[in-house]
Amino acid sequence: DLVRHKGIFPSRKKRFCTEHLKIFPLMAWMADQYPHDDVLNAVGIRAAESQARAGLEEYEDTSWATTWRPLLQWSEADVIEIHRRHNLPPNPLYLPPYNMTRVGCWPCLFARKEEVAAIARLDPRRIDAIRELEREMRALPQHTARLDAAEGPLRWVPTFAVARRPDGSGGHVTQSISIDDLVAWAQTARGGQQMQFWLDDDRSGCMRWGVCDT
Prior knowledge:
Blueprint: H1 2-6, H2 16-33, E1 40-42, H3 51-54, E2 59-61, E3 66-68, H4 76-85, H5 113-122, H6 124-138, E4 145-148, E5 152-155, E6 161-166, E7 172-177, H7 179-186, H8 205-209
Helix pairs in contact: 5-6, 5-7
């Protein structure tokens, strides 16, 4: 519904999904439930998860709450250990056969190659739904080229994925990649050529969480 409302898919440069699906609804709920209170918003992100998160502070004051990131300096091993200590099972999507690293969206636009392949294999209806949404977006008139000084020519593409390719003059151009092209690439070995039909992820979920049967 959000993609239909915006007329585009979220992307690395336009991550409106986080704001509209997480932050804004939380802000509205807080304003309704606690209009006169000081709110402490605890967020379970870690600095090691991304370069952007590595630059965050443990406490941050905003207009609607104080954000607290108590796990910011934790390692993945710390997270797994506290689950074990309190006998809490992990989200099943972190475990085989999925082995996901991001589970908020299905798939996340930052999903790894192995994750895209797993979703295509285990939940093909999700790929069908994205394909249909791409078809709807292609019918809209607003996907026209514009110029971005930092990135070179960009296009509001009507597809789930984009790829940055050399433009022949030292810069890069963003190209539209359909969900079918993305799935086909996800089923190749390193280098994008040889097809593979297994997931050889050395960070298998059950191994990371220590719950493998064998």
